[in-house]
Design a protein that fits this description.
Layout: E1 4-9, H1 14-26, E2 31-33, H2 44-57, E3 67-73, H3 77-83, E4 91-93, H4 97-107, E5 111-115, H5 121-133, H6 140-157
Parallel strand pairs: 1-2, 1-3, 3-5, 4-5
Length: 159
């Protein structure tokens, strides 16, 4: 079963989000769009938290989680900073297919960040496809490190 994809963007990532939403559906995934719905100026944390809340609640270290997220803003940096404040989220910005695959194999990244300004659409499609199709390896060393992060989150956030 393929994970559900929750996608969001601010005004700087709106166009990329709209294009990727259709592409992801063509790959056979269910997509939930949490906004924004235009290029009108808005605050990226609002959309980062919507995606991160959905993803963090379903976090697991399975090869593929039940819910994965994709966020876009001008640089991807702001979205990643905000999303990583949510328990269970491992958000990464990927600039190419190799970094996208690595983030899934080694880090079980469950949110992908993309730059609306610096990522051409065709590159974004390749990055998204590689990221969605790459499972977490489950290798002991990677799982051990991620469990240390989860333990720290538990101390900070509690249940």
């Amino acid at each position: 079963m393929k994970p559900e994809i929750v996608i969001g963007a601010d005004h700087g990532g709106f166009r990329l989000k709209e294009e990727l939403k259709q592409f992801i559906k063509q790959l056979g995934y269910d997509v939930e769009d949490v906004g924004t719905s235009s290029e009108e100026s808005c605050d990226y944390p609002d959309y980062a938290f919507k995606v991160a809340d959905a993803v963090g609640k379903s976090d697991s270290l399975q090869p593929f989680p039940l819910v994965m997220g994709i966020l876009a803003c001008r640089s991807a940096a702001g979205m990643m900073i905000a999303a990583n404040k949510v328990k269970g989220v491992r958000a990464v910005a990927a600039m190419d297919e190799k970094s996208a695959r690595h983030s899934r194999e080694h880090n079980a990244a469950n949110i992908l960040g993309l730059s609306g300004d610096w990522t051409p659409l065709e590159d974004a499609r390749k990055i998204v496809k590689a990221w969605l199709e790459t499972p977490f390896s489950g290798e002991e060393r990677h799982a051990r490190r991620l469990l240390k992060i989860a333990d720290f989150e538990q101390k900070v956030f509690g249940q």
